[in-house]
Amino acid sequence: MNPLHLNDILSAARTIAGTAIRTPLVPAPAFAAIAGQPVLLKLETAQPTGAFKLRGALNALAHLPPDAKGVTCCSTGNHGRAVAYAARARGLKAVVCMSALVPQTKVDGIRALGAEVRIIGRSQDDALAESRRLAAEDGLVEISPFDDPHVIAGQGTIGLELLQDAPELDTILVPLSGGGLAAGVALAAKAIYPAIRVIGLSMDRGAAMHASIEAGRPVEVEEVESLADSLGGGIGLDNRLSFALCRDLLDDVILVREEEIYRAMQALYFEERMVAEGACVVGIAALMAGKLPRPKGPIATIITGRNVDMTVFTRVVTGQDVTLGDHRIEGRPYAA
Ligand SMILES: *Cc1c(COP(=O)(O)O)cnc(C)c1O
Question: Do both 199 and 71 map to the same domain?
């Protein structure tokens, strides 16, 4: 039984209004030429924390037990920043646990909001274990980045806004990691317009939700460095909500290569003059690589965040090589 309904998402929209921004949906003509249909970008980069995760975090913090002493979470960066922001607004303590793979710019952004940061191990699983330990031992409330009904309902408000602003949408492209975003958006969009297609996109190395849907149950994947660092990490072997929702609601999950993400970051920058994380451009990457099914109407993709490491970003847009662990992306200047 699906424990979440459109009503939960409508209620989340009221809860987060005023703090999370109702973000613009803007046309991207350069990509429409490739798609043969209008392409719309949902600019979650405009959120005060630079990423959509503020929606879920605000909704989750609004539902804390009244005696909560504080909150803790694991994060690839953007959820931690969102939780830190929401906790500060309520005068609550926040402890954010992250692996050493998280870019320094994200760590700095979280500390600047007054949260305590703990760098634990080399994977999101290590960070999760620490966050659970803090919840058990220190009485902090753990807020999952994706496997929490209030977080999923909060992210789902993006789906509401998409269909309010573009009721004729044919396809929504959603960057996919733990699946809180994709689950919420698909739930909202399909409740309003059941025939809409919602496609999840991940990088081809370490795509935990894709591997889990293929296997029919949550599985572990090896976590490696990626241009789409916000999409790294597992979905939790004890996943309660986001796995089943993504499995049941997503029409497809498509994987893109690091080289395709690199090209898409360049294209978004030069064609639309936008600075965005690798995680945001996976939809555009799939479009440019000809990996999407043919749309019959407008496509929207969610530009999920802009908290990119500027050293890496500068290398990408100037066409230099980028080294990610043992994977090397050969640089190439952008040419339309
Ligand atoms: C967290 C995140 C995602 C993926 O969201 P999930 O709910 O984990 O699938 C995509 N893009 C950015 C920028 C993120 O921070």
Answer: no
